[in-house]
Specification:
Length: about 300
């Protein structure tokens, strides 16, 4: 009989970086490792995750359970990955292939769902009846938690907002850039890190833009804020959550794109309780990502223990 796992491993599979964290059974961090994502390679992605898990287990001298947050979802109809901006995952039996590579069961869920559940459990959304969480990184993800439970919906994309059209587009925002999903002007084409970089002209990435004082960079950031405000306002009109939690993951570790709460506040028709304060805390994205890993895994492995 195999020994019982003595810790949990949470994997955050991002479009740029893949990070693994090991938590003891009380939720305390034991170890972590971050590596580059094997962009474009399905086999490489599986190998990266396998190496991360095996590395943590070798250092800790024990085995763990494994939960993974991905930028996509498992289709309830086909069992295949869909909606992943890491497009090499789409159409694959990713969960089963990982289980084969790791020799154990794995839990797999959408990363924005994991993030939102994390924030709703003991983060910025703790204590709110409903929480709408957004990840802005290589792509744009969203999740909804109500009464402490994640809403998945029949298609497992209840909180997704990135492939809705940018609301109230100005003349130069319509029809908008072409999206990998086949449409034009999706929110993701404006609000992802690559979308911000493209809007500026493609000569700087989002991290460089955030650090630049040039008028062109500042103008691009201001356009970004207005677009984010419009997209969040529309989401608010749909869901009416008392708490928005924009999880603005930095484009690279350690650098969060600065976010001025004032334009967002003006653009929002309704300002829910805690909204502006939460946006002003946008520099906590690194922390959010960390907690996302931890709570995502906790939520995935112990759904009955999630405090409401
Ligand atoms: Zn799209």
């Amino acid at each position: 009989m195999a020994p019982s796992p003595t810790f949990r491993i949470g994997i955050d599979l991002g479009g740029t970086k893949t990070e693994a964290i090991a938590l003891d059974l009380a939720g305390r961090e034991m170890d972590r490792q971050r590596v580059a994502t094997a962009k474009g390679s399905y086999g490489g992605t599986i190998a990266t995750i396998r190496d991360l898990v095996e590395g943590l287990e070798a250092r800790l001298g024990a085995i763990g359970t494994v939960g993974i947050g991905i930028p996509g979802a498992i289709s309830p109809r086909t069992g295949l990955i869909k909606n992943a901006n890491s497009t090499w995952l789409n159409g694959k039996t990713f969960d089963r292939d990982l289980e084969e590579a790791l020799g154990r069961k794995v839990r797999l869920a959408n990363d924005a769902d994991c993030f939102t559940l994390s924030e709703a459990t003991d983060g910025a959304g703790a204590g709110f009846e409903t929480v709408f969480g957004v990840i802005l990184g290589t792509g744009t993800g969203g999740g909804i938690v109500a009464h402490g439970r994640l809403l998945a919906g029949p298609n497992a994309i209840a909180g997704e907002w990135g492939h809705n059209p940018l609301p109230w587009p100005s003349g130069d925002e319509h029809p908008g850039p072409l999206c990998y999903c086949g449409r034009r002007g999706c929110i993701e084409t404006f609000l992802s890190g690559p979308g911000l970089a493209r809007d500026h002209g493609g000569t700087m990435n989002a991290e460089q833009l955030a650090a630049s004082d040039s008028p062109e960079a500042q103008a691009a950031l201001q356009r970004y804020e207005r677009r984010l405000a419009k997209a969040l306002t529309k989401a608010h009109q749909h869901h009416r959550p008392p708490c928005h939690r924009p999880g603005r993951r930095p484009v690279q570790a350690g650098t969060a794109v600065p976010l001025d709460p004032k334009p967002l506040g003006r653009a929002c028709l309704l300002r829910p309780r805690g909204y502006s304060a939460e946006i002003a805390r946008s520099r906590r994205f690194v922390g959010s990502a960390r907690r996302r890993l931890a709570l995502a895994h906790q939520g995935l492995t112990q759904p009955r223990h999630i405090p409401i």
